[in-house]
Amino acid sequence: NAGVTQTPKFQVLKTGQSMTLQCAQDMNHEYMSWYRQDPGMGLRLIHYSVGAGITDQGEVPNGYNVSRSTTEDFPLRLLSAAPSQTSVYFCATREQGAGNQPQHFGDGTRLSIL
Amino acid sequence: AQSVTQLGSHVSVSEGALVLLRCNYSSSVPPYLFWYVQYPNQGLQLLLKYTTGATLVKGINGFEAEFKKSETSFHLTKPSAHMSDAAEYFCAVSLTTSGTYKYIFGTGTRLKVLA
Asked: Cβ contact (<8 Å) for B46 and A102?
């Protein structure tokens, strides 16, 4: 049982390049989310989804796009990378409508924008 | 606005000493509360959670936390620190807005354990 799988684990991009961070889960959770983690700032919510076909913005959505075509996958797209997007990105899932349930995290993608 | 405050971005304790990591929240209603631990180059793992019922919650690795509504606090403790406890710890609250629960994380406390 893999849980939440993020790929790639590391990536270096040049300013202006695009890329997609992948997130896949095998727990059949409806709720999926993307966070970025920066030193001293904790985790900040980028986008989230409450089910296939439904996405919404979080606290810091600018520069990122998401889509949710299946329950299992929730990719995060950077259309034109900027140095300010250098960060560690985490995907997390939980049961939808269950605020008392914990989130399950992937191991993260470490992204550097030059 | 709802928020989570973790006092002390870095905490150092000696091996065998008490660990106390502080977390306060601001919310008009009691939220669900969580503590997570993050080891280097890994994602966050759940340590413990408070939802309802007993206010003293026990978690993994000997950690526990007490929900104090009057103080809006959820401090994490462990009686005796071990070298393997060195990690970053995050407090989080789960709050509902417009029917969807969202998590708010504190900025984290990095625990260093001294031999």
From this structure: yes
